[in-house]
Amino acid sequence: MTELLTDRVCVVTGAASGIGRSIALAFADHGAAVVVADIRREPREGGRPTYEVIQEDGGTARFVETDVSNPDDLERAVAVAAEEGALNVMVNNAGVLEWREFTEVTEAEYDRTMDVNAKGTFFGCQAAAKAMLDGDGGSIINLSSTAGIRGAAAYPSYCASKGAIRLLTYALADDLGPEGIRVNAIHPGAVESEMTRADSRVVDTEREDAFTEETPLGRLGQPEEVADAAVYLASELSSYVNGESLLVDGGISNT
Ligand SMILES: NC(=O)c1ccc[n+]([C@@H]2O[C@H](COP(=O)([O-])OP(=O)(O)OC[C@H]3O[C@@H](n4cnc5c(N)ncnc54)[C@H](O)[C@@H]3O)[C@@H](O)[C@H]2O)c1
């Protein structure tokens, strides 16, 4: 499509499905080589695996089975990316959501949410930073959420994990900026994916009506709209952007 990401080597966690899949496809469209790092190959929503679609379109993509809650897996995904050249872009996108009232959250649910979302992002950033410090710098993009900015009673452990990602992003922007590594976060609003369809049952329910009524643009977002923000943060278009919380939420957070 463009040459915005030509010759860039990118790891996208959780890229089998949903938003991560759209980011991986968009990165490949803009010329990047992509490592799809996920616990599953097949998209949750169905269809062909992301890496196969990219390969069949003539792009460069590899799949690395990765559980982001295991730092060794993240190191391995980054090492595979390094085989394509120096790692330029890391997207910590893998995430899980439990829609549960505060008093009903179990320790196991809390641990899973924090392990995948907060710990997975923390060690994803660490694995990427180590590789980028040995290279020419880079761009790290963390998927937070509007739930990392304002609290929601319906998913308290998710809010805690996404708030952690926001502050981690600011800390690392301060730490790694001087090394030529930009660290930014994307905060999507409600976006159509299996997370909002199957896990939180927002899509096509009264919950969707509540979101769309509150959202100035009057609809849910699409994964491709988040992917466009990721392309911006991955590319030189955002060369002076560091420590940013980029809302992609139809205006719901600030109105
Ligand atoms: N969909 C939304 O409305 C929305 C809104 C704000 C933020 N987000 C965030 O965007 C990101 C992507 O969400 P989505 O809607 O595409 O979700 P999704 O459920 O459609 O896809 C998530 C992907 O992450 C993978 N994954 C889950 N646990 C993993 C693990 N331990 N290791 C590796 N991969 C793992 C899944 O296999 C899946 O492919 C998440 O971080 C989510 O919190 C989503």
Structural overview:
- The protein is α/β, with parallel strands linked by helices and 255 residues long.
- 42% of the residues lie in helices and 15% in strands.
- It contains eight helices and seven strands, in the order βαβαβαβαβαβαααβ.
- The longest helix has 27 residues, at 107-133.
- Bound molecules: nicotinamide-adenine-dinucleotide.
For this entry, give a set of tags.
255 residues; binds nicotinamide-adenine-dinucleotide; alpha/beta; Rossmann fold; seven-stranded parallel beta sheet; 42% helix
Helix content: 40-55%
Q: Evaluate the radius of gyration.
A: 17 Å
- List the strand order in the largest sheet: 3-2-1-4-5-6-7
In terms of DSSP E residues, the strand content is 15-25%
| Global outline | globular
Q: In total, how many domains does the architecture comprise?
A: 1
CATH architecture: 3-Layer(aba) Sandwich
Beta-strand segment tally: 7
CATH topology: Rossmann fold
Q: Could you state the order of secondary-structure elements as H and E?
A: EHEHEHEHEHEHHHE
Class per helix and strand makeup? alpha/beta
Measured distance between first and last alpha carbons: 34 Å
Q: List unreliable stretches of 5+ residues.
A: none
CATH superfamily: NAD(P)-binding Rossmann-like Domain
